[in-house]
Amino acid sequence: MSDCIKTQLNQEILACADVIYDLEKDPIIRLYLFQRSATEWVQMFTIHQIASDSFTKDLLLKEFQQLYTGIPLKKPLAYTDFVNWKSKIMKSPWGEKLWQYWEKQLGGELPILDLPTDLPRPSVVTYRSDSHEFKLNEELVSHLKQLQSDSISLFQITLSAFYVLLYRYTNQQDIIVNIPTENREGKKEFNDVAGNLASLVVVRSRSVAQRPGNLDGNTTFKELLIQVAQTVDQALKHEAYNYPLSQLLKQLKLKSNFRH
């Protein structure tokens, strides 16, 4: 394949990947087939996040490969089975215990993270966003791994650093952060279910903030790290059966504020 044809193919693939979904009329999954040469083809699919998570994308690729090679697919559980199972959990005694935990964590007046902005926040949410990608140098990665242990993960280390960063910008010590989880643990039969099973877990640093002098120089980063790790572990433990964030907001009579 010539460089010109390869460049043109890449441009076509990127153009298809950037097509915006209209959920009121568009299918949630799109399949494309591009011809590279007389004997080579490229297949691509795009799927809206409303019906997919990172696990689902890998699952669909695996199933496409099986179908291509003639391997029959097993009949998995449907997404509705997952929803029904989750609904039963919410109505069970265990679901009540989950609610009691989250009511204790998020009950009462919640802090609003007041990050400084260059421009006033819009009165109408635009849902516009951006991302910033960067790489950590090898020396810093090496230092981070030295902090890692059997009870503290790299994720918990970077989350602790993120809490410190937010404190430096806002001078707030009670900070709430949402972290994404795949939400496929606990029930292996749902591992072959295609759909957006992922969820957001609320991690609040309130237990850290109650300590006098937290983050102001009197608490070491290692002490903060241990407390954040414990908070994350407890949050994930009580998310094991996916207490939906939307249900939490409803029961707590809270509204999402996407302006912050």
Keywords:
single chain; 260 residues; mainly alpha; Chloramphenicol Acetyltransferase; 2 domains; two-stranded antiparallel ribbon; two-stranded antiparallel sheet; globular
Describe the SSE topology.
Blueprint: H1 3-17, E1 29-35, E2 41-47, H2 54-68, H3 79-90, H4 93-106, H5 138-147, H6 154-170, E3 176-181, E4 199-204, H7 206-209, H8 221-237, H9 245-251
Antiparallel strand pairs: 1-2, 3-4
Helix pairs in contact: 6-8
Structure notes:
Helix content is 43%, strand content 10%. By secondary structure, it is mainly α. It has 2 domains: 49 residues, no CATH class; 159 residues, 2-Layer Sandwich (Chloramphenicol Acetyltransferase). 11% of the residues are buried.
The major sheet is characterized as:
2 strands, antiparallel
CATH class of the largest domain: Alpha Beta
Q: What's the overall average pLDDT, rounded?
A: 83
Strand content: 5-15%
- The CATH architecture name of the largest domain reads 2-Layer Sandwich
Q: Estimate nothing, just give the exact number of structural domains.
A: 2
Query: From N to C, what is the helix and strand string?
Result: HEEHHHHHEEHHH
Radius of gyration: 23 Å
Fraction of residues in helices? Answer: 40-55%
User: Number of helical runs?
Assistant: 9
Shape designation = globular
CATH superfamily of the largest domain: Nonribosomal peptide synthetase, condensation domain
Number of strands: 4
Helical/strand content category: mainly alpha
Sequence of strands across the biggest β-sheet: 1-2
Distance between the termini: 48 Å
> Low-confidence segments, ≥5 residues, pLDDT <50?
209-213
CATH structural fold name of the largest domain: Chloramphenicol Acetyltransferase
